[in-house]
Model the fold of this input.
Amino acid sequence: MKRALLLVTVVLTACPPAPPAEPDAGDAGPAEVDAGFATSSRAALRWKRHRTLQNDLTRALELTSDEVCREAGGRPCATTGPVMLVEVLESAGFANPTAVCAAVQGRGTCADAPLLELQTPKGVHVNALGGNEPFLGETFTPLASPLLTTPLSTDRMVLSACGARAAKDAAGPAVVFTEVDLAATLTPTSPGVRRQVERLFQRLLARDALPAEVDAVVSMLEGPGMTGREFAQLSCFALGTSTEFLFQ
Amino acid sequence: MRWLLLFALLPSVALARPSAPALLCQTYPTAPACVGGQPTCLLCHSAPPALNLYGAAVAGQGLGASFDTALPGALRAVEALDSDEDGQSNGDELRRGTLPGDAASVAAPVSAQAGANPSFSPGQWDARFAFTRVKAAFCGVSPTYEERKALAAATDPKAFVHQALDACLRSTHWRDEALPRLADARIKPLGSAGTCLNFYGNFEPDYFLFIWALTDGRDARQLLRAQHHVQRNADGSLSPIDVTRPILPPVSRAGVVCRDRYGNTPSKVGGQPLQVNKRAGLLTTQWFLWRNTMGALMPRGTAALAASSWLGTEYSLYEGLHPVPNEPRDLDAKNVAVAPCNQCHSTLDPLAYAFSSYWGGTGSQRPEFTGVFQVDRHLYLTDLSMAARDEWSRNPPRAHLFGQPLPLDREVPQSSALVELGKRMSDSEPFARTLVEMVWVHAVGAPPGAAEQAEFEALWKGLPAMGFSLDRVLHALVDTNALGAP
Done:
């Protein structure tokens, strides 16, 4: 499965636009294939930072922002919102912020609410994904370019979002992965496979796929058996971590 | 100014004549580093005071006691050399805006390779590419498949992109998320000191003023000129509030009554005391002065942050220095008049004088005094010696900006030195350049490169003609190849 996914990545990196000047945050770094396309005149693309990444995944996969990615005990990977009382207490180092919340509110239980109504990035991967947390983290400027951990954070966020969508669709009713049987073991010629890939290109990359690109993604199914749900998650992951998705 | 560091190897000269930046810019007046700004120290230094290859080449031309007269010739003498061996001569690098002493700083060629591309038109302004960047930068989300289809079907794709920009500039993403992030480094909020759990001041009005001044076509100079507060209304809109009323701080948030550690309630802190004619936008908010001035007589940190935020200069990096003769006077006895401190403080201290009549943190007794203007404030600061207070009263220090004198507070009773400073700052080329670079980096993803200097310069120089409207700047930015050419 890993080999198949790598192959998809190789082919997708051959697609336009040209490679970015900044360190790549998404693909596995194989040599690119000359597809004969005219290349960028500037070799300088815009890094899709945490907020656009979150928004794009949310919209393309029809998830709520809470569903995209949570880690480290249920904390969001990267999101935005007002600063909540419990979050401030957590950042101040209280081991049991909920109890402290109740105490400062003079109540029996904590009624968490915005302590600052200004919107702020928050989450365990915000900084690595190019955001900054001014109120809680007191970081006032974002990274100028990706960190070594940025690809890891990106992978985890995209894989989580794709997995969440695949799981929801498998439980039904399907919303995004509607063209394939998510419970069945798929082959390259299974019904709906190519259509599903084409729909994913439209959702994530906002364009129609080239035939060669569809071939590349479908080739994931040439190896050992892969269920529709696995294919859904990994094809989504391949597109969601492509250069084209992550740089603009 | 970063050239000052070159003098570090020639200390006697450095102390006497910090003139290198001006001399360089006289020699290369159209160099990007000299247009609306000054060269960085990295032009001649690898890690100040150590010279880089270019700085060493210049110094090798025999600079010495006649530095001022020798430098232009030395610059010309090494112009044809390629000191950093990156394939571009020193003179070409200076003219293109790259660093002649840094091989990693080269002008990337701008030319599309031959071949077909099914998605974009490399090398020329491309509506699809520009549309994608506009949506991501200003709406916070990439275009959908359907939106791209609509663009492809548009009879005037460029107009379509500009309509999208207009919609984005009205979006909550731009106003509530993207713009505040551009303000963070200028406001420097502290969650640990600005919430109802520990309420020393309210930075929310600073954000509201920043957003207000940079939206709906307003004059961006209001950032440093506004003599009113801005509040957020129940519907989320922003509006200036009656200047005769203090801005009301929150009484409670999240079920927590706002108090500081002394038990003061919001009526005493965060009230943004307003003396209308002493007000200079974000330079005089209660938060800005509390956070940066605190109890200092000489608000050097306040002045340095103002210069960094609005002029794009870091004095600590020897940037933007305009030494004032006979400065620093070192009235607070911090030993800043000795070398090499005086190289920066001869610029910084005269700027800080403008802030010295505004109270910063005032402790538990009079927290509501934070931000208040008081012309004889120096008399109340007990860490200042009696002799120093007398000297300050007898011969009050005069603030300077760009080496030019500002009026004393007592000379402008209906204003203040800081109000005048805000006006001059916001009318200056460095302000325009800094403001435009801020949104350029946000939209394009990187500072303007060597090939983009002409477009960048046209944008910030056009700011006055655009009525200092950031919205109009952004529309002009969208039309550039820097943003729109893949």
